[in-house]
Design a protein that fits this description.
Blueprint lengths: L2 E4 L6 H11 L17 H10 L1 E5 L5 E7 L4 E8 L8 H15 L4 E7 L3 H9 L3 E6 L9 E7 L3
Parallel strand pairs: 4-5
Antiparallel strand pairs: 1-2, 2-3, 3-4, 5-7, 6-7
């Protein structure tokens, strides 16, 4: 399956459903709750306009959001349908993010994952990312997120 970029005229309802379904397992594990609970079709449309939204499959079985930041391309909402995990779809999406960072002349791809989601840490490390920092959500006196970065060369 080939990744494709959605535009502002796309139907984002399946992408929203994919994110909600894929992130649902986090509810009992992370604090504060995931921002996906506030995510709307309009938010995804705005992301596709101001940044990028990518998907694999129709209906989508994987998706990600890309946002151009000052010194990196930020990869957010990377989601893969449960029965399509361990098939290389996240790796494909990261490869697209790397290619887009190169095309935008940005030095790295960056993402964040919650402290509690240790399996995500292992996945991103296996994909070449390294931990670069920890941050706390507003109102928390402990780290709640880990930032990972993947340098992009060439």
């Amino acid at each position: 399956m080939t990744p494709y970029r959605l535009d502002s005229t796309s139907d984002f309802r399946p992408v929203l459903q994919l994110v909600q379904d894929s992130f649902a397992y986090m509810d009992a594990r992370i604090d504060p709750p995931s921002s996906m609970h506030r995510l709307t079709v309009g938010d995804i449309r705005q992301q596709a306009t101001a940044g990028e939204v990518w998907a694999i499959g129709a209906p989508p079985v994987a998706c990600m959001f890309l946002t151009n930041k000052e010194n990196c391309l930020y990869l957010g909402k990377l989601a893969v349908v449960a029965d399509h995990r361990s098939k290389g779809l996240a790796r494909q999406m990261v490869a697209v993010a790397v290619a887009r960072a190169r095309a935008l002349d940005l030095p790295a791809v960056e993402l964040q994952t919650r402290v509690e989601l240790t399996e995500n840490h292992a996945t991103f490390t296996a994909l070449g990312f390294t931990e670069t920092g920890r941050t706390a959500h507003p109102g928390y006196d402990r780290p709640t997120s880990i930032t990972f970065r993947l340098p992009v060369s060439g």
